[in-house]
Amino acid sequence: PELPEVETVMRGLRARLEGRTIVKAALNRPNLRWPLPPGLERRLTGAHVCSLSRRGKYILIRLAGGDTMLLHLGMSGRVSLRSANPDTVPLHEHLVMEMDDGWRMGFVDPRRFGSVDLVATASEQAHWLLAGLGPEPLGPEFTPGQLAAALAGKRTSIKPALLDQRIVAGLGNIYVCEALYRARLSPVRSAHTIAGNRATRLVLAIRETLAEAIAAGGSSLRDYVRPDGEGGYFQYAWSVYGRESKPCALCPGVPACHGVRRIIQAGRSTFYCGRIQR
DNA sequence: CAAGAATCCTGTCAGC
DNA sequence: TGCTGACAGGATTCTT
Q1: Nearest to A25, CA basis, from A44, A47, A48
Q2: A234 CA vs C7 C1’ separation (Å)
Q3: Least C-beta-crowded within 10 Å: which of A93, A160, A169, A205?
Q4: Nearest residue (Cα to C1') for B8?
Q5: Rounded distance, CA A60 to CA A53, Å?
Q6: Measuring from the CA of residue A92 to each C1', which nucleotide is nearest?
Q7: Residues of A recognised as catalytic
Q8: Whole-number distance in Å between A30 CA and C4 C1'
Q9: What distance in Å separates the CA atoms of residue A207 and residue A151, rounded to the nearest whole number?
Q10: pLDDT digits (tens, 9 = 90+) for A99-157
Q11: CA A150 – C1' B2 distance (Å)?
């Protein structure tokens, strides 16, 4: 999941957890991507949930008592919200929290690339996983000037540069492809050539793509569902991602357009139109 | 230093 | 039906 999915999950969790108390936390394994923090079950049990927010692809759950729980969904992580029912425990559920109203939140992650950690709320932004993140793409700090400055001197191409969370926080493979298409910028263009009008177009395209995806509840692929069990529907609005050899919607019937192409950049699939993206 | 490859893990799907 | 290989929403660590 990327920023729009994480935002959707966070909102679903907020509606169910905020103001409630965790009556029991249970852990089913010692580690995910990283070792789980010592005493996690004990530190969660009895804690009151004050507020939830998102930073990049991380969900922050602030607890009374001074701890913030950090949650990253990795590649296959998802959250299961359900009323207590032992018949419906999902496979690969590594952490379960039972709330004082009887609902349970489970963290499910087959590939275990996700992570869970605890950090002192007072210095949560200094946590090593958050400290190096670039600006929030929907926030005021993400401007054409800032983006151009962050890309200056980068010899890599723009597509892998946008996947680097230090440049801008929250984009992943789907939304980078979609935003570059919307900005009509080639994914193989050198990152340092993005400035001026191109930077303006790119910032706008990223903002619009993410905002529309959030409004659609994110994109549902194989295993992403919202905490309420419903899927997002932004996958129906994809212009290029997953659409190899299909026609490009912006050049209908143009012979020079060979449709959506798929190439590999830094080991990841890139989808784009070679005609309108320069 | 920077950039690309390898890596962690399980599940799914296409092709034979 | 199996079986095999490619591939998957991520991000760090290891090699060039």
Answers
A1: A44
A2: 21
A3: A93
A4: A113
A5: 5
A6: B10
A7: 1-2, 57, 268
A8: 33
A9: 18
A10: 999 999 999 999 999 999 999 999 999 999 999 999 999 999 999 999 999 999 899 99
A11: 15
- H or E segment to which residue A208 belongs: helix A196-215
Residues A220-246: tens digit of each pLDDT:
765 555 666 677 889 889 999 999 999
Place of tokens 């999950």: A9
Q: Which nucleotide is nearest, taking the CA of residue A166 and each C1'?
A: C11
Measured CA distances, A241 to A12, A15, A147, A156 (Å)? 26, 31, 23, 21
Residues whose beta carbon sits under 7 Å from strand C: A 1-2, 5, 33, 56-57, 72, 74-76, 111, 113, 129, 163, 165, 172-174, 218-224, 232, 267-269
Nucleotides of C under 7 A from a protein CB: 7-12
Beta strands in chain A (DSSP E): 22-27, 49-55, 58-63, 67-72, 78-83, 93-99, 103-108, 115-120, 260-265, 268-273
Angular region, A46: left φ>0, alpha ψ -120 to 50, beta rest: left
Q: Would you call A145 helix, strand, or coil by DSSP?
A: helix
**Across all strands, nucleotide nearest A241 (CA–C1'):** C9
Q: To which residue do tokens 């994809």 refer? A: A238
Q: How many angstroms is C1' of C7 away from CA of A118? A: 33
**Contact assessment for residue A147 and residue A199, using Cβ atoms and an 8 Å cutoff:** yes
pLDDT value of residue A231: 77
Rounded CA–C1' distance between A154 and B2, in angstroms: 9
Q: How many residues does chain A have?
A: 278
Q: Which residue is nearest to nucleotide B11 (CA to C1')?
A: A110
List all residues 6 or more positions away from A104 whose beta carbon is below 8 Å from its beta carbon.
A80, A81, A82, A83, A84, A96, A97, A98
